[in-house]
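Much of our argument rests on the idea that a fold can be written as discrete symbols. In the encoding step, the backbone of a single protein was reduced to a row of integers, each denoting a local shape. We regard such an encoding as a compact summary of how the chain folds. The record that follows shows the chain in one-letter code together with its fold in token form:
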Amino acid sequence: MRLARYELEGQVKIGAVEGESIAQLSSRIGHLGNDMIQLIERWPELRDHAERLRGKVDCRVSDVTFLAPVERPGKLWGIGLNYKDHIEESGGAIPEDQTWFAMANTTVTGPFGDIELPRVSTELDYEAELVFVVGARVRYATAAQARDAIFGYCVGNDVSVRDWQFRTGQFSIGKAFDTHAPYGPWIVTADEIDPLALPIRSFVNGELRQQSSTRHLLFGPVQQVEHLSKVMTLEPGDVFFTGTPGGVGAAMKPPKYLEVGDQVRVEIDGIGHIENTVTKG
């Protein structure tokens, strides 16, 4: 199932997307409102109800503005150096362990919202990424528990400010700028997708920049949940970016950074696409 947060006529709702149609869930499922985290937490009890509503037509995809599926995740993190070709273009060695960084909640923006070119940098870059959303509270997860803890998947762009990212050994500051984590356009529930068999691409102004498959991930989503749950309790609605393949602007010769007016599109087969315009920050 594809579960989306969207705005229609000034109201934010949650719906199930089927083709070009949306079945509105917010008022049909008791006390749900527009809280995606509540839907995720209550999914075991609400899933059958949502499935029965699937296919109803309350509005069309073209009528709405899609929003980030979880507006303010409790945790928002990203992993670096998780595709071999990106590691090679970055000039690094293949890591033996997972390389994680925290991202600020204010980086979240909608799947078709604007991303800002900061006033303090000209080195704005894109990173096409598979995103997963946690669906169950888990700590010290086994592989089976980790698999069951993943609620679903989205398309994301881990927008990066390269000069800030590499000023120190800590990546987080360059990954923390406002609007720099667009994702969506909806959550595809984990039962409908194989996260390790998804072609992934990015385009800048229609030019293909990245093209790979999630089968090339060094550490897949299940391994990521296993690893992270050794450190922290993962909770429903937590959002994690899983790494980018080769083809980022910083690795080009000369580098090709994003400029005001650029259109950045990220596609993942089986999920959908997001597209964002660079604006002046």
The domain at 76-280 is CATH 3.90.850.10 (Fumarylacetoacetate hydrolase; domain 2). The chain has two domains: 2-67, 76-280. The chain is about 15% helix and 35% strand.
